[in-house]
Every structure is written in structure tokens, then in C-alpha cells.
Design goal:
- This protein is α+β, with helices and mostly antiparallel strands.
- The chain is built from 7 helices and 12 strands.
- The strands form 3 sheets. The chain has a 4-stranded antiparallel β-sheet with strand order 1-8-3-6.
- Helix 2 crosses helix 3.
- The protein is globular.
- The structure holds a DNA duplex (13 and 13 nucleotides).
DNA sequence: TCATTAATGTGTT
DNA sequence: AACACATTAATGA
């Protein structure tokens, strides 16, 4: 089954674990829940922890010097995030916020290292996923630096369509409950501008929008990006 | 149902 | 892009 939650390189470590191993992991790691909106991690947190996201959605974001937020990644079930000396999913200065109620495992970096040693396939997968994340980050950087808001939004919609898309007749529905504001945070723009650009795109027939729902014509958007 | 909050739409600077 | 404000949908007491 294709992975629906693959935005900015999902690292699904659970996929590499069999049920017994998962059970063992559950037993030795504190499980915690947090409600929607909670900041799970922020720069300067004393305890280096690796989190495994068991259920829910989390966004990683950074704050620019002038106080604006830039979303760096959306994570779904099975993702990992955190900062330690030996491993980092961000580049320092990264916040993590729950976008839904979430269920997490907290691992110390020691636990995490032991886990990787006991299961080499995990390390391999981690390297692959992090390489992919790096590649996507470079691509994102280029688009953010060079593109118009329209270009950036189209780029984002394509990516979201590929990651969260569900076929919906002529359209692909982006199944991620994103608000215009959240979209703006992902492309370094503002809520109003995203709203306006989306209605522009809608008038061109490239997208259809409803509150917290967007459907896109993926292939036509890809054409637009190419040209 | 009513009141409040969240999301979106739009015009002005 | 920032701001103000209007409209509409969702939430929840």
C-alpha cells in the first residue's frame, strides 16, 4: 500500500519493526499524549529526546528573526523527530507542534542508539529517509528563494497532492485538513495572499476549495510548474 | 439554541 | 504584505 503521509521525507521506522519488537519498544519507553496545539519541542529544551509519533500529526517549524513561522515538515504516524548530539531531524532551532491530538513515545538518545544497533535495517532506512529529506529541503529552498507566491503555492500543492492525495474524480483531494494559514507557513507567505491565490487558481480551474479542503488537478499543476 | 472561536473572503493602504 | 473588517462554518456551553 502506498504511503499517504510522505511529506518532506517521512521517516517511518515502525515499518521496519515487527509486532514483537514494537511491543518491546512500547514497554520500555514512556508513552505520552498531548493535545492539539501543544508545543512538543522547542529550542533550548534541556532533555535531548527522540520522539516516535505513534498517532497524530505534528509539524516542525522554525521562527524567523522577525517572528514569523516557517513550517519545515509535516509528520504523520510512524515519523520520528527530535534533537540529540548524535541525531537531529531539524537543524537546531526547530519547534514541534501537535496539529492533532497525538500519541508519542519518548526515547533517550541512548535508547535510540541501542534500537538502531539492534536492528540494522532501521539505520539503513534512516539514512535513506534523511537523504531524501535533505534533497527535498534543497528543492524547497530553491523554490522559496526564486519563485513567486503563485509558483511556490503550486509547488506546495503538487507536493501535498503527491503525499496526501486521494483520487476524487477529475481532482485529487489533499487529505490533510490544512488551513490557508498553515499553507502560508509552508511557503513563507501570508494567509490573505494564499486565500487570494487559491481563488485565482480556482478561477482557472486548477483547484477547487472548501473550508479545510482542497482538490487539485495534479497533472495540470505539474504543467504549470514546468512552464 | 446561543455565544464564541476559527476559517475564509475582500477591500484598502 | 499588512491590516481591518465582514461573512460563514464549526464548536461547545
Amino acid at each position: 500500500m502506498p504511503d499517504k503521509l510522505d511529506y518532506l521525507a517521512r521517516i517511518n521506522l515502525f515499518r521496519e519493526l515487527n509486532p514483537e519488537e514494537l511491543r518491546r519498544l512500547d514497554q520500555r519507553t514512556p508513552m505520552l499524549t498531548a493535545r492539539k496545539g501543544t508545543i512538543l519541542m522547542q529550542p533550548g529544551d534541556a532533555t535531548p529526546v527522540i520522539y516516535l509519533l505513534k498517532k497524530g500529526r505534528v509539524r516542525l517549524f522554525r521562527v524567523t528573526p522577525d517572528g514569523k513561522e516557517l513550517t519545515v515538515a509535516l509528520l504523520g504516524d510512524g515519523n520520528i523527530f527530535g534533537e540529540t548530539d548524535s541525531f537531529s531531524t531539524g537543524s537546531g532551532g526547530t519547534y514541534a507542534q501537535a496539529l492533532s491530538d497525538v500519541l508519542l513515545c519518548a526515547l533517550t538518545s541512548q535508547d535510540f542508539q541501542e534500537l538502531l544497533l539492534s536492528k540494522p535495517a532501521l539505520s539503513l532506512r534512516l539514512v535513506q529517509a534523511m537523504s531524501e529529506r535533505l534533497r527535498e529541503t534543497e528543492e524547497l529552498l530553491e523554490t522559496l528563494a526564486l519563485g513567486s507566491v503563485r509558483q511556490r503555492l503550486l509547488y506546495l500543492l503538487r507536493k501535498l497532492g503527491l503525499a496526501f492525495g486521494v483520487a476524487h474524480g477529475e481532482y485529487v483531494r489533499i487529505d490533510a485538513d490544512l488551513t490557508h494559514e498553515e499553507l502560508a507557513h509552508m511557503i513563507g507567505s501570508t494567509r490573505e495572499t494564499v486565500t487570494a491565490q487559491l481563488s485565482q487558481l480556482a478561477s482557472e480551474g486548477l483547484v477547487q476549495t472548501e473550508r479545510k479542503q482542497i482538490r487539485i488537478r495534479l497533472s495540470e499543476i505539474e504543467e504549470q510548474i514546468g512552464s
